[in-house]
Specification:
By secondary structure, chain A is mostly helical. Chain A contains 19 helices and no strands. Chain A has helices spanning 3-11, 28-38, 44-53, 58-87, 91-99, 101-134, 149-168, 170-203, 212-220, 235-244, 256-259, 271-296, 305-343, 349-365, 367-371, 373-396, 407-411, 417-435, 445-469. By secondary structure, chain B is mostly helical. The chains are: A mainly alpha, B mainly alpha.
């Protein structure tokens, strides 16, 4: 299958309102490449260092990433893919059947806004590479607002370029991203290898004196107190973060749109390529570079992927940062544009994508989003998670409970308020728990999923029958 | 031609990662690693678009 065709499938342009026919099903290899490329992104260069800033220890980060990524892969395999290969519908069409057209608009709005902020942080990452060339003051770890005209200009220029390309030539960049992916993965690996060697040299000892590889790991990820303004990360924080950072995609069922093309549900295992290349190797490699920076100068707490990559790999490192940010911001802006366009179908996709890019660029100007990326990613998962629970119980449990599946479709209604009440209630309670410090944002989504499932069943039991009888 | 380009691409990938492995073992200096990596980058992006994602001609 050609890359263009793969990309069309990926963004859900085909078979939007019908099950994917057997002739369009894809093999296991298609998913391995897609996940490996998609999860080796510019944001990995922020997340790795932020783990070090959060004071993780070697066991916590390595063990936590191993377990958390495994749980993420299992979530794709056993929650998302089984529904995808049975229904073979996009997330949006599946939601429309359950919730009604108008309710899906609200979901699109939430999804689009989240995508904008995510793309904004990718633009931020790319702009840090520009800062190496033009040497303007760049934001510090604690900065929320932009701190120099140079920074603002760099983000605006990078964001404008990415937005225009996303609006004009999405497929060209998608093809470029596929070509860059194998090279990018190896540059990420080189970051880690070079950083490890430099760390040993900066320590003035040898690997054997440090106690071997594990001794070196304990020097890199020392644990202890987090940097000021950061949340302390333990094994459980790392595990839950790795599990839930793509929660919108697996538990939230966004990747129904991807796996509807899979021949078998176990193809969900292909997500392991993305998790263990991007969310294990790349995060650890990027965190080694930041640990080295702190080791050499503890006062330099800036998390700036551009300078970090340049010191390790020179121009090739800088190119990697720019490409990693650009190739992942591009589809993110495009998807956000698609989500918004569903709300305003009369406006052209070109205009919507440009406007979406402008919002993402504006978000990228404020470094607070990228510097607090760990928390933002957790919020992103939490906001979209209840819809995944709704789809799950609707698909698997409603028949057994004597409830009507795909209620909006069966009743011919455009707005099913039961999912809306479930969604808003669960998100509100989760946000309140996190805001008041009762449960940290990284953990709140797990009980939130069960709460959403139970609430949706209870509300459906109470109100479905009445509406049908009336 | 396709096979030749694929070989060049594989060699450029090796040139991307091997220098950093050698640096880890102390066999080369960082300046050499950076030079080899940028050279490998140029070769990769020059060779790969001509075969990756293109249909194999029968």
């Amino acid at each position: 299958m050609t890359d263009e065709a793969k990309q069309e499938h990926h963004v859900g342009d085909e078979f939007e309102r019908e099950p994917v026919p057997k002739s369009a099903w894809l093999g296991f290899k298609s998913f391995i490449g897609q996940y490996a490329g998609e999860h080796c992104a510019g944001t990995e260069l922020m997340i790795g260092p932020l783990f070090v800033a959060a004071g993780v220890s070697a066991f916590d980060v390595i063990g936590g990433l191993f377990v958390g990524n495994l749980l993420a892969v299992l979530s794709w395999m056993f929650l998302c893919a089984p529904i995808a290969v049975r229904a073979r519908l996009t997330l949006y069409y599946q939601l429309e059947k359950i919730c009604g057209k108008h309710m899906v608009i609200l979901y699109n709005l939430a999804n689009g806004i989240m995508f904008c902020f995510l793309a904004g942080s990718m633009i931020t990452v790319s702009a840090t590479a520009v800062g190496v060339w033009f040497d303007f003051p760049m934001p510090a770890l604690s900065d929320v607002m932009p701190n120099s005209i140079g920074w603002v200009m760099a983000v605006l220029v990078v964001g404008a370029l990415i937005s225009v390309v996303a609006a004009f030539g999405y497929k060209m960049v998608a093809r470029f991203a596929n070509i860059a992916a194998p090279w990018m993965v190896l540059v990420f690996l080189a970051f880690g290898l070079i950083g490890a060697r430099q760390f040993i040299a900066a320590s003035g000892s040898s690997l054997s004196e440090m106690g071997g590889i594990w001794g070196l790991a304990n020097e890199i990820w020392k644990g202890g107190d987090p940097l000021p303004g950061q949340v302390k990360f333990t094994f459980w924080h790392v595990t839950f973060f790795a599990w839930f950072c793509n929660m919108a995609m697996h538990i939230g069922m966004s990747d129904l749109s991807v796996f509807r093309f899979a021949k078998k549900s176990w193809y969900g295992a292909a997500s392991a390529s993305g998790m263990y290349v991007g969310h294990f190797m790349a995060w650890l490699a990027a965190s080694i570079l930041y640990a080295l920076q702190l080791h050499i100068d503890p006062a330099n707490t800036d998390v700036l992927p551009g300078p970090l990559a340049y010191k390790a790999c020179g121009i090739a490192g800088l190119i990697c940062v720019i490409i990693a940010g650009w190739t992942t911001a591009n589809p993110t802006i495009y998807r956000a544009g698609l989500a918004f366009q569903a709300i305003m179908p009369k406006v052209s996709r070109f205009k919507v994508t440009l406007a979406t890019g402008a919002i993402a660029t504006l978000a990228g100007v404020f470094p607070g989003i990228a510097m607090k990326l760990l928390g933002f990613v957790a919020i992103y998962g939490m906001v979209l998670m209840p819809m995944g629970a709704i789809i799950f119980v609707d698909f698997w449990l409603f028949d057994r409970l004597g409830l009507k599946k795909n209620y909006a479709e069966q009743c011919g209604i455009n707005f099913n308020w039961i999912p809306l009440v479930t969604w808003v209630s669960v998100c509100s309670v989760c946000a309140w728990l996190a805001q008041t410090g009762r449960v940290q944002i990284f953990f709140v989504s797990l009980p939130g999923w069960f709460a959403a499932a139970v609430l949706y069943i209870v509300l459906s039991k109470l109100f479905q029958k009445k509406e049908i009888s009336s | 031609m396709r096979k030749a380009l694929q070989t060049v691409s594989v060699l450029s990938l090796l040139m991307t990662i091997v220098p950093s492995v050698m640096f880890l073992s102390g066999a080369v200096e960082l300046a050499q690693v950076k030079l080899l990596m940028i050279f490998a980058t140029v070769v990769w992006f020059a060779a790969t678009p001509f075969w990756m994602g293109k249909k194999v001609s029968s």
